[in-house]
Amino acid sequence: MYTGKTLVVASGQDPAGLNIHKEIIQKLGMSKVGEFEGYPVMKHNDLLLAITALNSVEAEHLEKHFKVEKIIFISKHESKTGKPCLTVHTPGNIGLEAKHGGRPGELAISHPLCIQEALKTLGEEAARIGLGEYQVSLEATHHGPTGLRVPTLFIEIGSSQKEWMDKKAASIVAQAAINTSYVDNRVFEAFVGVGGPHYAPNFTRVTLGGRLVGHIIPKHHLEDITQEILLQAIKKTVGCVGVILDWKGTPKNVRDWVKSYVSGKLGLAVVRCTTRRKTL
Question: Which of 94, 217, 227, 249: CA 20 to 30 A from 199?
C-alpha cells in the first residue's frame, strides 16, 4: 500500500496522460518508490504519481493499492469537433447508463476547491505560454470511475492526437495537477451546477470569479434528473450549500422543481448564475 495525500494517475493506454506524466516528473524530480501494474510509482513529498494498465474510466481499484486524500486523473479528452481544449471535471454517471466506466446513476466525490485550482492554473499557464487556441473550461459530470471513496477529478487535453502529443499542453496540465495536489482541507462553500451545455461556460466563468462549483448536471441530462440523483450530487460535492442554476440553460419547469425540492424540502440555497449572483 502506497500512502500520500494526492495520487496523480495516467492510463498506460493514453498518450496524453503519459506525456503529462513525463512533464510532472521533469518538473518535480521525483523518486521511484515501487511499481504498480508494471509501471514505476514515483513520489515527491506527499504526491504519488502512477500509471494504471486500465483505461482511466475503469480504474475503480486504485484504493486497494493507494491510501490518499484525493485522486487526480491526467488524461486525453475526445470530442467530435476536435477543438483544442484543456478541461476539468468530476466523474459520474447521471443517467441510467454507464457506457464509459463506473456504475449507472452513481457519482464520484467532487472537490470544488480542487476544480477551481485546476481550472485557474490551466487558464493562467495557457496565457503565459501562449496557447490561446486552447479553450479552457469545466465540463459537466460524466463517465467513470464512480466508486472511489475520495474526491476525484479529471484534468484533460483535447481533442485529437495533435493536442495529445503537444508538449506545451502537457506541461500546462502537469502544472495544474501539481498545483491542485497542494489544495488543503480548508472549509468552503460550494454548489452543484444545474443546466447549460456540456462545456459549461457560465459555470466556468463563475468558478474563475470565485464561486465554487462541484458536480454539474447539464441540460441534456435534465430528463434524467431525479430527487435521488440531485441529492447524491449535493452530498458528493464537498462543502455543498445548495444549487446554482444556469438560468437560460434550464427549462422553467426544471427550475421550479429544483427550487421547490432544494430550497423547500432540503432547506438549501438556490442561486441564479448571473454576474450579480442573484439569490432566488
Answer: 227
The share of the chain scoring above pLDDT 90, in percent, equals: 92
Q: Give me the chain's average pLDDT, please.
A: 95
Residue 84 lies in domain = 2-181
Q: Look at residue 274 and tell me whether its pLDDT is greater than 80.
A: no
Region of 72 on the Ramachandran plot (φ > 0 left; ψ -120 to 50 alpha; else beta)? beta
Residue 265 in domain: yes
159, part of any domain: yes
Residue 88 φ/ψ region, left for φ over 0, alpha for ψ in the -120 to 50 degree band, beta for the rest: beta
Instruction: Give the 3-state secondary structure of the chain.
Output: CEECCEEEEEECCCHHHHHHHHHHHHHHCCEEEEEECCEEEEEECCEEEEEECCCHHHCCCHHHCEECCEEEEEEEEECCCCCCEEEEECCECCCCCCCCCCCCCCECCECHHHHHHHHHHHHHHHHHHCCCCCEEEECCCCCCCCCCCCCEEEEEEEECHHHHCCHHHHHHHHHHHHHHHCCCCCCCCEEEEECCCCCCHHHHHHHHCCCEEEEEECHHHHHHCCHHHHHHHHHCECCEEEEEECCCCCCHHHHHHHHHHHHHHCCCEEEECCCCCCEC
Percent of the chain predicted with pLDDT > 70: 98
Same-domain check for residues 245 and 139: no
pLDDT tens-place string over residues 222-252? 998 999 999 999 999 999 999 999 999 999 9
